[in-house]
Specification:
homotetramer, Urate Oxidase, 6 helices
């Protein structure tokens, strides 16, 4: 190493040859918070906040990647970081980081307006979502939409064997899908909620609470039932290409959770 | 600053005078993982893992504390870090860090054996606990026991207005207590669980699930009811000096939680 | 309890008398996600997402509070939930829940544009913030602003005793303040960052990385130093009434953290 | 559904035929806390606490699995739940749940004694570990060992371009390995730490802090360098069959993280 002085030339250490010629599968930045604009099914714009990861591959001959460029690219899309820009961002990343493949993951809160089933009292429901997008050497694209849907599950066994009532609880369904055509987050939420004992609501007045309690009691579901019903509905949807469905139920009679997972035959982890 | 050389004397920078003469309320180490031995009510020894924080005050004339000494002291109690040693540890901390006050917080998992109510099938239930202990200048001691108890709450309103069933869910009760005499973790758990719609169980066979479902339905509780009942029981226990009770219910019909908090008149946050 | 039928009148169970006449300190809803609009110092509007808790007290004669009303009130402020509305929201809560006191806590991401120190490359920095606001029986207001500032701390002891270099690391400063007059989040961030070895940046080019490395090396700081300097600056600011400053440093030579806390004499936990 | 009475026979709802004949990939229990005994390289027994997930597959003709059996089986191994029992547990699960495949995941804290490099001051270092084990229809076994190693990384670019010092920080290396023969957790930790700028220590006196600071400065490492060096060492170890290495560095000059991942050619996600 040269003697350092104030006048030292600022060497590009990252571009030096790697000591060990090993291909790096993914290299980049993680947990970058960033404002995100999402268009919803009502054609309205939602402002939300995303936590973003961005990676490229690194050929074996280069020592390091230039991490600041990821953030620079992201900033150029500030104010217009919407879904339809994702491949433009990935293309920029590939080009400016001289990479063969580029990956972008963005997790964010998505809101839907929801009315109570009897009173019509409205409020906002949050759904945690994630986009997982990749662009590889030959321009091959991959896009996985992840939607987490909180629901109510009421136990069929508990209902069957008990004189009255049944244990029920909050559960989370995590649906990961690859799509043939555009599918709105609202559509995935709809498919999943149809399979639950009940949807959840931000506001319920007394008449609504009566309705939801009785409705859930009329639709008991194991985590296994929910996962299977969601799979059958996704199989029947021509716009859904592949899926992984995970149901995790925060059992109200245990302190551990019940879990079921169904994957379509053509599912590959992103 | 002197020119540094390999032969430089290792100055005690921490003992230098502070630039600004400001008393530091707490200074120390956080999130130190450490094995902990706890004696349970059955007089058996439990091995668990704690996450530990340790602090002292720092008089305004000293620049820094000697953080390595906290870990050294902890290591001397390795294998015998049991509850009854806490004040001995605090005394050592005060002495070796030349402090007026010393604080130790230890969070850990505590297990209790539990039998299903009908079949008797047994399993282990975990309760998250914390000790918060302090020793101040005049040798005054403070000890707060925190016990988190997961329970089932069944909604009285939902039961009252619905033809059948009622929404119910897992809830967490966090009980913080100051004690007059020794109270076992098992005793706090017992007080709290008596106030719930039902206790939780690690193993339930069909006959147990029937029992628990019907039992919970016969004991509907709002978070407000649970907090108040726990307060009344703690007021009646001569060994409990002061308390804060927090009940947080993971509502099965909403994606947000319901919360109630009752404190005794003499409660002071540790 | 009456035999229930489909035609049962929907009783207001919450308004029934409490079984145990115990005052409930806080009762309400927790972890409600909600879009929030914040005005920043540049007089521009930021759209962000908050996680919200809302509570009231509950007199000893009532069994329960009406939780759906919290969410209804929140929804009425949809699109205009900005800081200056907080007391209007609290007033509404007090009135419609017939309570003596009302509390609102909102945690959210706040973004500031930041330029690199030499190249001027710009990007967004996130700061996690929280508003903790209360309104009590006599109209007495309390407002605590919490700002979390990630910074770099470079160890003075390590620098002093080592021939070259010094261990440094990311740290988080959590500043809780009560204010006499309006203080912008930007101002709190500025006070805290002035006390660090260095600010953090979203984008740094090589010339910036050189600057930041050398700048941090010229300003070594213990967690104790940072906490004290922040206290001195807050004492000197006529707009800051009271404060609690916590510095937690994710030590790069240990797997545990270093911690220091200074409170002003008139600080009371919210 | 039959009219329910107190004398109702307790039907086995889980064994009923499934409404939709969909194979369930994984069904079971999650987040079960349980005491675990681990043998370490010094041939001493460590008591720790694990968080356990257990799953089986579910053929398309059955509606549900019998979740209580997972916990019953776990309890039978209480006090002797050591690594070498994992396949016995999986065999029991397969048999008693009449499944083709069984999976067990156990995450736990593992402690190693560590002496400071100059003073020899000793303390305990925690490493978060996970076992991921499966047994499939034909008795085929899969075992993945996950070890998380916190380390120090000092930036080569920052060192090269700065007159003095370099930014450094805590990083986490997550090494997932499939093994040909027994490899101790201590061995994986050793391989990973050799690739870092420096190991971390529970206790460091002044002379140790000088050593660690200077040692790290003499061994600058990008996340890319660390991932590649670990890959080269694992390739050279005849006992390691396949691996995934993830390095995440909590950059001390940014509030986001740097990340690099290398996988061996034969790596398959468990």
């Amino acid at each position: 190493m040269p003697k350092k002085q104030e006048t030292v030339e600022l060497r590009d250490v990252q571009s030096q040859p790697a000591e060990h010629p090993v291909v790096i599968h993914k290299v980049g930045v993680r947990s970058v918070p960033f404002p995100l604009v999402v268009m919803d099914k009502e054609h309205e714009v939602q402002h939300t906040v995303a936590l973003i990861n961005m990676y490229v591959d690194l050929p074996k001959q280069f020592r390091g990647t230039h991490m600041s460029r990821f953030i620079e690219i992201l900033n150029e899309y500030r104010g217009v970081f919407v879904v339809r820009n994702i491949y433009a961002i990935l293309k920029d990343i590939k080009k400016r980081l001289k990479a063969e493949s580029a990956h972008l993951e963005a997790s964010f809160s998505y809101f839907m307006n929801r009315k109570a089933p009897v009173s019509g009292s409205a409020g906002l429901m949050e759904f945690r979502c994630q986009f997982i997008a990749s662009l590889n050497g030959e321009g091959r694209r991959d896009f996985v939409l992840v939607v987490e849907v909180p629901v109510n599950t009421l136990c069929p066994c508990s209902k069957e064997i008990s004189v009255k009532s049944a244990h029920n609880q909050r559960a989370i369904v995590r649906a990961k899908t690859r799509l043939r055509k555009l599918v709105w987050i609202e559509d995935i939420v709809g498919i999943v909620e149809e399979c639950a004992s009940s949807r959840l609501f931000p506001v319920l007045k007394r008449e609504d609470e009566k309705y939801v309690t009785e409705h859930a009691y009329s639709r008991p579901r194991f985590v296994e039932d929910m996962a299977r019903q969601a799979a059958v509905r996704m199989d029947a949807d021509p716009n859904i290409l592949a899926y992984q469905i995970e149901v995790e139920s925060f059992e109200s009679i245990h302190s551990h959770n019940a879990y079921a997972e169904v994957i379509s035959e053509n599912w590959v982890s992103p």
